[in-house]
Design brief:
It is a single chain. The protein has about 375 residues and is an all-alpha fold. It is built from eight helices and no strands. It is elongated, with a radius of gyration of 86 Å.
Length: about 375
């Protein structure tokens, strides 16, 4: 901007200095109306020479001025550079002053802050000093009060040097007892807490056991009631078992009687058969002992076999009776005791045997029923 202004001012000065001088410095043309061409040519050459001289002089003037302007421009440029350098230095100086000012302000703020902090520390230290002085006064007062204890401890050491040679021993003993006392107090508090907890647990456990005892008492009562019911049921079952046992005994006795009767009937039949056919006598004592050692089921199976044998004898006997009845002969068994049988009894026996043998496979049943209702020592059979 400044350079442009300087250039405009230079141009204005040149125009002011040389404006209008170009035409005035040139040679004036002579006006000859009545001259020859040669004269005119010479005039023209003169004018041209003058113009050339004027032009050369102007060129030299322009060169001098240009050189002056160049020197002036260089001087202005140097001045401009110097001005810029001075401006830079001035800006640098301003920046340094600004930074110095900022540093000074910052340092002043820090010093002010430090001063305030130091003042607060001074106040705090003064307060601490005051408290320390008060504490010192209290400690001095306490020391004065405790001097009597010092005298007392020294007297104790002198009188009981055997147990406590030094005051430190007494203090150590006191500290030990104090620690023990503190431990016992803490332990007492802990034991009280444990005791309270244990008591609460005991109350809870007792309540639980009371409820459990009540429930078990109710269960015992229910079980006693159930036991009585079971006992009553057991008595009923026992009476039923006794009844069944009695009936079984009676049935067993009856079965034994039937088995004995069947054996007796079979023996009488065989004895009659041997007498009629003159056969020797057979000793059955061994067979009876063996039969007595058999089980009831085996005895029953053997008795069935005996009934089959008796049935065969009775079938033969029936055929004989039928054969002799056709001829109207009286039939008297050889083995029957005298006076035990009449004609009417023979007719009844023959009719019963006929009815029992002519049924469908009912021989054994008729004979067994007859044996159960007959006299085991006689020979007559009734149904």
């Amino acid at each position: 901007m400044k350079k442009t202004e300087r250039t405009a001012s230079i141009e204005a000065q040149l125009l002011e200095q040389y404006g209008g001088r170009g035409t005035s410095s040139l040679p004036q043309t002579l006006m000859f109306d009545h001259v020859s061409p040669a004269t005119r040519l010479l005039e023209k050459r003169r004018q041209m020479f003058e113009v050339q001289e004027a032009l050369n002089s102007q060129k030299e003037e322009f060169a001098r001025r240009e050189d002056a302007f160049r020197r002036r421009e260089e001087g202005l440029r140097r001045k401009d550079l110097e001005l810029q350098e001075s401006l830079i230095k001035f800006n640098k100086f301003l920046q340094e002053n600004e930074s110095k000012r900022n540093r000074a302000l910052k340092r002043a703020a820090e010093e002010k802050k430090q001063r305030e902090q130091k003042e607060k520390e001074i106040e705090k230290l003064e307060l601490q000093l005051k408290l320390k002085l008060q504490e010192e006064a209290q400690l001095k007062e306490e020391v004065e009060k405790n001097l009597k204890y010092q005298d007392y401890l020294e007297n104790v050491v002198q009188n009981m040097s055997k147990f406590f040679p030094e005051i430190s021993d007494i203090l150590n003993r006191y500290k030990t007892l104090l620690d023990a006392n503190t431990y016992l107090i803490d332990k007492h508090k802990t034991d009280e807490g444990v005791n309270d907890q244990t008591y609460r647990e005991f109350l809870s456990f007792r309540k639980f056991k009371e409820n459990q005892l009540l429930n078990e008492s109710n269960e015992v009562a229910e079980m006693q009631l159930s036991l009585e019911q079971v006992k009553n049921k057991g008595l009923r079952v026992q009476s039923e078992v006794e009844q069944v046992t009695l009936e079984a005994s009676e049935k067993t006795l009856e079965l034994g009687q039937i088995i004995s009767s069947v054996s007796n009937v079979l023996e009488r039949c065989e004895e009659s058969f041997r007498i009629r056919h003159n056969k020797p006598h057979i000793d059955r004592s061994y067979n009876d002992r063996v039969s007595s050692q058999l089980s009831l089921h085996e005895q029953c199976q053997k008795t069935k076999g005996k009934l089959d044998d008796i049935a065969m004898f009775m079938v033969d006997y029936r055929d004989i009776i039928a054969e002799y009845s056709a001829f109207q002969h009286d039939f008297v068994p050889l083995s029957m005791p005298k006076g035990k049988t009449t004609n009417a009894s023979n007719s009844t026996t023959n009719a019963n045997l006929g009815n029992s043998m002519y049924g469908d496979n009912s021989v054994v049943t008729g004979v067994t029923s007859g044996i159960a209702n007959s006299d085991p020592t006689g020979y007559s059979v009734t149904h």
